[in-house]
Design goal:
This protein is an all-beta fold and about 130 residues long. It is built from no helices and 11 strands. β7 and β8 form a beta hairpin. It is globular, with a radius of gyration of 13 Å.
Length: about 130
């Protein structure tokens, strides 16, 4: 069992940056593939980015590629999402998720592949 707590959301102007953090409890953080998802009002939750256990490999949704960077610090049990050049369409609640599968592979883009979820953090980008 792992608990995930996101932080770092807020209100930012278009073109600005934010860094989200997701802190995980427990001693097995390094054994999880980690992902970020987002859900805008009236829309389904969708994939943003994922990272393998060691951080060697990453995957991004086309809509954020080149602007967002996912990373992790296994010593701190934390995964990050650096978001640059933010756009109003990035406005959403952002969730981190952990996948306990034995397979350390990407892509991992569907909600059902993840076992644990955080409560989410709101990101609002004003135009």
């Amino acid at each position: 069992q792992v608990q995930l707590v996101e932080s770092g959301g807020g209100l930012v102007q278009a073109g600005g940056s934010l860094r989200l953090s997701c802190a995980a409890s427990g001693r097995t953080f390094s054994s999880y593939v980690m992902g970020w998802f987002r859900q805008a009002p009236g829309k389904e939750r969708g994939f943003v980015a994922a990272i393998t256990r060691s951080g060697a490999r990453t995957d991004y949704a086309d809509s954020v590629k080149g602007r967002f960077t996912i990373s992790r610090d296994n010593a701190k049990n934390t995964v990050y999402l650096q978001m640059n050049s933010l756009k109003p369409e990035d406005t959403a609640v952002y969730y981190c998720a952990a996948d306990r599968s034995i397979y350390n592979t990407l892509p991992r883009r569907t909600l059902s592949e993840y076992d644990y979820w955080g409560q989410g953090t709101q990101v609002t980008v004003s135009s």
